[in-house]
Specification:
Blueprint: H1 2-12, E1 15-17, H2 38-46, E2 50-55, E3 58-63, E4 68-77, E5 88-91, E6 96-99, E7 105-111, E8 115-121, E9 128-133, E10 140-144, H3 158-161, H4 163-168, H5 171-179, E11 185-192, E12 207-214, E13 217-220, E14 222-229, E15 232-235, E16 239-245, E17 248-251, E18 255-261, E19 264-267, E20 271-277, E21 280-283, E22 287-293, E23 296-308, E24 311-324, E25 327-340, E26 343-356, E27 359-370, E28 373-379, E29 382-384, E30 387-390, E31 394-402, E32 406-414, E33 419-427, E34 435-449, E35 452-465, E36 473-487, E37 490-501, E38 520-524, E39 529-540
Parallel strand pairs: 1-3, 4-10, 11-12, 12-14, 13-15, 14-16, 15-17, 16-18, 17-19, 18-20, 19-21, 20-22, 21-23, 22-23, 23-24, 24-25, 25-26, 26-27, 27-28, 27-29, 28-30
Antiparallel strand pairs: 2-3, 4-7, 5-6, 5-8, 8-9, 31-32, 31-39, 32-33, 33-34, 34-35, 35-36, 36-37, 37-39, 38-39
Amino acid sequence: MYDALMQIEKKAGFYFSYDNQFIKNQKKISFTAADASVKEILDRLLDKEYYYIVNNNKIVIRKKETEYISIQGQFFDHTDQKPVEYVTVYEPNLKMGTMSNDQGQFSLKVPLNSAVQLTANRVSYYDTSFVVEGKSNTPLKIGLTPKITTEETFTVQSIERHWLARTVISTKQKFNSLNLKNYFYERKFQLGFWPGIGTKNALKGQQENKISFNVFGGYAAQVDAFELGGLFNIVQKHVRSVQIGGLFNVVGGTVNGVQIGGLHNYVSGDVQALQIGGFANINKSNTTGLQIGGLYNQTQLFTGMQIGGLMNNSQNLAAGMQLSGLVNYTSDFKKGMQLSGLANITRQLDKGAQVSGLVNYAKKINGFQLGFLNLADTLNGISLGPFNYSRNGKHALSISVQENQQVNIAYKSGSYQLYNIVQVGWLNSDMAGGHYLFGYGLGSEWKLKNKIKMSAELINLHYSPTNNFNTDYSNIILQPLLIYQLHKNIQLYAGPRLQYQLPVEKENSAYYKNFSRNMLPLMEGKKDALHLGFSVGVNIF
């Protein structure tokens, strides 16, 4: 292009002045001209998109400015002749539009053409198209035909019902989205300040953007590469790749990639992403990936990891892990782990584990529970903790005596494969008031034949004088027990007891010789000892 202009300068004796921002050099030129004026040659060269100012032997080339016309009119109802408010009128190809006011009046500025075809959309009315002749200044009167429907109300899209959308999106913008629910157009780049501010184009919310920057907040149809909002982003359909909102992200469709909200992320559709919300993440459909909420996470079917400062709430967890400071909840847990500071709750855990600082609850569990209190309706696995209950498991109050004048009361709970023992008692140690004892252990029980059963228990006990708390003496007990089922709710048991005295610190082993009276010594040390004894007792449940 520039070479062609230089050749014309040499032949005609002129020189040209132009802005290379408008005249690009990439265009290839190839034609021959004879007996033609300079203007005719330039028109062929520049496609008649420019005009020329001649000053002596200097020709200034300037791009023609687009000429616009303003189309004005009013919409009315065909049936009762009343004005129709909030009608969206637009030129689909030019992607320009506006909306009528509460009196049905509108004004739309479009490029001058021989004729302009406009489309009018309004909820509860049939779509209408009409042609406006170029340079026509006559105000239009356009009648709209109501749709006859049995529905008394129309359903607003989920994104429009969200509290943030209700707060920042105007009534006109909401009507626009409803009016244009089937019309969207693509833009590679979008820069906005606030929904409805910075543009007179009513179609702004229907843009499908590749890259979007919102100084404060934005409202768009979808994002396919990257979106950054100083305060918030609201998207009607899907988001791909990365979305970052200073405070909020609200998406009506799906999210794939990374979504970061300073406070809150809300998604109506499926999420396959890393999702981080400073306060909460709420997904109304399914989620796959990593979900991190400062306080709260919520989704339907989840696969991956949920990390919540206070609570994770997932209706179903296919495979993965819930980690929270207080509570994890899921209705159906297929495979994985729940780890919480306070409580884990699920209706059914097919394969996995619940670990909490206080309570684990599962209506049906095939796996492992570890907590202070473990509850299950049906337990097919192991529960570890001081207190356990399952309808099909073991739970019994046990009272036993030993040859060394020790009386024990224990609560045994969990599964028959592995149950927990919380034990307290009193020992006549020939010291003032004797010694009380407490401890924890594990046991396993299996059936031999008919009413005869067998169990093995391993218990760690700590002893203290009744008048001064001091646990210098402690032991570990291993006892196999033979059990007879006397009644549906009563078992009698007896068996030998191997008792190992752990090394003492404050006294020597001889000081505690009364603790092993009537027992058979197997090993006597200065600080520790091993004895064989016998226990008999009853289980009531």
